[in-house]
Design goal:
globular, about 160 residues, 2 domains
Length: about 160
Amino acid sequence: MINNDVIRSIRYTLDLSDGKVVEIIKLAATDFPIEAADVPALLKTEGQDGFVPCSDRVLAHFLDGLVFHYRGRDPSLPPRPVANRITNNLVLKKLRVAFQLKDVDMHQIFEAAGFPISKPELTALFRQADHKHYRACGDQILRNFLKGLTLRLRGSGG
């Protein structure tokens, strides 16, 4: 999926203001060069005037910031390096950690989106890339997960 679509979807799901998006990004790196005025360009779709592609670095900081926002930061641990390359599998992993989702929750989210997946399919998405049962998370899977997450967090009327 395009990074802009991911950040736009999560922003909508959580009903975040531009300032809150920046605040979450800065939880992962206080010195990250982004301001609230930069956010609207990241939320535009490709082809819209003022569209700025969301880099992997921005999305990585946003996802890490979400984890810190919802789970807190352990000051006894050294900071983890920020991912250089964002894949759909990594987005799924970070959201699972941030919202403390168990397998049952993940299945319910996919069901709510009308996209049920089996237990083996789900576990394959969270395996290491070099594992023989690893499965790359396609755009359709991530889109349906984000849709189901929105239904779970905002309700069907929102």
